[in-house]
Specification:
Layout (H helix, E strand, L loop, with lengths): L1 H15 L2 H8 L3 H15 L4 E3 L4 E3 L1 H28 L4 E7 L1 H18 L3 E7 L6 H4 L3 E5 L8 E8 L1 E6 L11 E4 L5 E8 L5 E12 L2 H9 L5 E4 H4 L5 E3 L4 E2 L3 E7 L7 H25 L2
Parallel strand pairs: 3-4, 3-5, 8-10
Antiparallel strand pairs: 1-2, 5-14, 6-14, 7-11, 7-12, 9-10, 9-13
Helix pairs in contact: 1-2, 1-3, 1-4, 4-9, 5-9
């Protein structure tokens, strides 16, 4: 049992990006997590993580071990899902809302896989970057950036991603003078703090919306056409060879993503299994992204 627990703690540390964030998400002290990692590396006989005061990265053995931890986590979730599914047939309409970016890359693909296993569920998907009222719109599940402050809603952390400032590949644009392509959720004047990837340097940048779109695909299209620079979630653009980072040495902090349900207790089985499917897909997607960043 200790081995399985240490594997899940190691998985949590990798996905959180630091011991401090892992401690918050796992509700454990930083020292307890550190002890588990130390014991795990002693038992395996080799380091799994390179760590310093600002960052951590997986060793080659750590990458392989993380994949096994991911598989065990998915297997345990599948075991719960299968047993629960046998108790009753999952059916009916499932209404889910999220942003255009997350719908395209995570939510829709995850739920398509779910429907293949539970064909009596009917999907109603709502693309919307603005938070919607779950009760008024009859929404069962919302996938949003940031925690909900509504105490009557239940929420589950499913992962994180980073918005990245992109330009068309080969263009001469820089962050100071380039026309800014704003997303619909950004204002007319946009202020961000970019952090150096290896040094303790913060670079504040202010942009004035020159062009504006209401979908991430349109923002990408304008950037690819050479009309300016803009923020795109890295989970969408990391393998787009028509884009490149405006300044690879500086980046924004990651944002956290949550599944939010309108009830605070007794989450229905259909919603529970949908949350699990979305989280599993997010985990797999983030691992692909981490591997791509290391090459």
């Amino acid at each position: 049992m200790n081995k399985l627990r240490r594997m899940m703690i190691f998985k949590g540390v990798v996905e959180s990006g630091s011991l401090t964030k892992a401690a918050e998400k796992l509700s454990l002290s930083k020292s307890v997590i550190s002890q588990h990692l130390k014991k795990l590396e002693e038992e395996i006989g080799t380091p799994l993580l390179y760590r310093n005061t600002r960052s951590q990265s997986l060793t080659n053995v750590g990458k392989d071990f993380y994949v096994y931890c991911l598989e065990i986590s998915h297997l345990s979730e599948l075991a719960w899902e299968k047993v629960r599914a046998k108790q009753s047939v999952l059916a009916g309409q499932l209404t889910v809302t999220t942003s255009y970016a997350l719908m395209q890359t995570i939510v829709a693909p995850a739920l398509c896989k779910l429907i293949k296993a539970h064909p009596k569920i009917r999907l109603n998907l709502i693309n919307e970057d603005r938070p919607l009222n779950l009760v008024e719109r009859g929404i069962d599940l919302a996938v949003r950036v940031g925690k909900s402050t509504d105490v009557e809603q239940s929420q589950q952390y499913i992962g994180s991603f980073r918005d990245v400032l992109y330009k068309a590949k080969g263009s001469e644009f820089n962050a100071i003078t380039a026309p800014y392509i704003a997303n619909s959720w950004e204002g007319k004047v946009i202020n961000y703090e970019f952090i150096h990837t290896t040094q303790n340097i913060v670079k504040p940048l202010s942009f004035k919306a020159h062009h504006k779109t209401n979908s991430v695909s349109d923002t990408i299209g304008l950037i690819e056409s050479g009309l300016g620079i803009g923020l795109i979630p890295e989970i969408i653009a990391f393998n787009n060879h028509n884009l490149e980072r405006v300044d690879p040495e500086f980046e924004l902090e990651k944002v956290e993503v949550f599944c939010i349900h309108k009830g605070s207790t007794d989450v229905p089985a259909t919603i529970r299994i949908a949350q699990s499917a979305i989280k599993s897909y997010m985990d797999a997607h983030q691992f692909v992204l981490k591997n791509a960043a290391m090459h």
